[in-house]
Design brief:
Number of strands: 21
CATH topology of the largest domain: FAD/NAD(P)-binding domain
Number of helices: 15
Structural class: alpha/beta
Number of domains: 3
CATH class of the largest domain: Alpha Beta
Low-confidence stretches: 449-466
Bound molecules: flavin-adenine dinucleotide
Length: 466
């Protein structure tokens, strides 16, 4: 009998397995694919060389749980954090600015950058500064889930220039525009990353393929009696009399287990435990929609970008990364990754159309690319990249609890308080284990004369005199 089986080897599953090992359990992690990472995975780029991520990822300094996970695996040095937020922002008309922190205390630390932004007028800056003060003081963010962020910001997000300002952050962090994202989620990101503390938005860009960040998990878990199995899909979570009994793999092996954590999107739960997913307290999660992310990867014969990482103001290009410079790739050329979030419009276009649509924008924003030869390219596409946290979706994000004893949920879509990111995934993995520990205490307590009343998915305990 296994102490704990984790289904899914993305960030959430790895975090769950490590947290389980910390409890003295010997977890078995089942991953369907050939590598760990899930939505944050990579494989060798046979066409252009180096490693190809399923999509460019970045983290911010405020993503502390993900950072702790990498530290634990000894790979945090592969995602070095910049000392502070300091990003080149260009537009397609040749204007340039630096989105950077000054030594002033938060939220004034971003004030000088705002004042110097050439893309904004004086009245835009005043409106945005007013919204920053509102964002700083707003209480109970959950109450904002009924509206989108643009509506909540009101005049501060009115007009294309102001909208472009907020979109610079919301599209990259929430995978939705300011007009689409729930105000609760958007306001959380802006506060946590940009307004509450200096240094919180310092950017970390992986210097290696994403799967390498999680690779050591197999050895770390093995040292604690655990195991990682790659290419091992779970077919069914086995449930009997309201309690989890184990997992049956796609190869037909039955693995008895005292605890199971399903760590992945709601669709994974529906696949491996359809009856459980259909339970009234869990079924709403299946209504969470998804938003695609595309990456256009371009190999030029010479350097074309003005910085290893830059943002393009009010442009479909959004954010540009030099894989060559960030990952230390050899050769004279430059591999440029155009990271295209909230990419619903591009999702079904053939790769050639995506390339042809974006190349003129790149030439306008980074003119050196116009003089360079394109020697290779491809498009990566994740149609279900993240859950779409539009207004009203807070109720669709579940906690780790399920009505089945010993079965818990993890995944970046769950109710971690964070947007659908690696940070959310890392937090969810730990939360799933903490939930299993708490409910285990709960059933031990029951045998000692403590009455426990499960209400919905959150067990409530009431102690009585014995
Ligand atoms: C292109 C792109 C760019 C992104 N950019 C960022 C970013 O910059 N910063 C950031 O923080 N986040 C970013 N994200 C989001 C982030 O990658 C995800 O939110 C996070 O990695 C999800 O982790 P997870 O473990 O919850 O789920 P997943 O990564 O989906 O993991 C689920 C795992 O379960 C496995 N699986 C499925 N079925 C089975 C089965 N039957 N049996 C066993 N295993 C199974 C899958 O193969 C997968 O490995 C991005 C996502 C994408 C797609």
């Amino acid at each position: 009998m296994r102490d704990c089986v984790v289904v899914g080897g993305g960030v959430a599953g790895v975090a769950a397995a490590l947290a389980a090992a910390d409890r003295g359990w010997r977890p078995l992690l089942l991953e369907r694919g050939p590598v760990l990472g899930g939505m944050a995975r990579s494989h060798p780029d046979r066409q252009l060389g180096g490693e190809l991520d399923c999509g460019q990822h970045v983290v911010l300094a405020c993503c502390t749980e993900h950072r702790a996970l990498l530290r634990r695996l000894g790979t945090d040095h592969l995602v070095p954090l910049a000392p502070r937020l300091d990003v080149l922002v260009v537009d397609e008309r040749g204007r340039r600015a630096r989105l950077g922190e000054s030594p002033l205390a938060a939220p004034l630390h971003l004030g000088p950058a705002l004042v110097r932004m050439p893309f904004l007028g004086h009245r835009d800056r005043l409106a945005i500064a007013g919204a920053v003060l509102r964002l700083r003081t707003v209480r109970d963010l959950d109450r904002l889930d009924g509206v989108d962020l643009a509506t909540w910001l009101g005049a501060a997000a009115r007009g294309p220039r102001r909208r472009a300002f907020w979109d610079l952050v919301t599209i990259a962090t929430c995978n939705l525009t300011t007009a689409e994202v729930s105000a609760a989620v958007g306001a959380f990101v802006l506060r946590e990353g940009f307004l509450l503390r200096r240094g919180a938005a310092a950017i970390g860009v992986p210097r290696a393929g994403l799967s390498r960040l999680l690779e050591p998990a197999a050895a770390v878990l093995a040292a604690r009696g655990g195991e990682v199995r790659l290419g091992a899909a779970a077919d069914r979570v086995l449930v009997e009399d309201g309690a989890v009994r184990g997992v049956r793999t796609a190869a037909g092996e039955v693995i008895p287990a005292a605890r199971v954590i399903v760590a992945g999107p709601p669709a994974l739960l529906a696949r491996v435990a359809p009856e459980v997913a259909a339970e009234p307290v869990l079924a709403p999660a299946q209504r969470l929609d998804v938003t695609p992310i595309l990456n256009l990867v371009l190999r030029f014969d010479r350097p074309v970008l003005d910085a290893p990482l830059l943002a393009v103001w009010d442009s479909p290009l959004q954010w540009l990364f030099s894989r060559s410079r960030l990952c230390g790739e050899a050769g004279d050329g430059e591999t440029v990754v155009c990271s295209l979030s909230a990419a619903t419009e591009l999702a079904d276009l053939p790769g050639e159309k995506v390339r042809d649509r974006l190349l003129p924008h790149l030439q306008a924003a980074q003119p050196r690319s116009g003089a360079a030869s394109l020697i290779g390219w491809h498009v990566t596409r994740e149609r279900a990249a993240t859950a779409s946290l539009r207004p009203g979706t807070a109720a669709l994000r579940l906690g780790p609890a399920t009505p089945v004893t010993g079965l818990a949920l993890a995944g970046s879509w769950t109710a971690t308080g964070w947007p659908v990111t690696m940070e959310g995934a890392a937090r969810s993995g730990r939360a799933a284990v903490e939930h299993l520990v708490a409910t285990q205490r709960w059933s031990h307590a029951r045998t000692r004369g403590i009455v426990c009343l499960p209400t919905g998915t959150r067990p409530v305990t009431t102690e009585i005199a014995t």
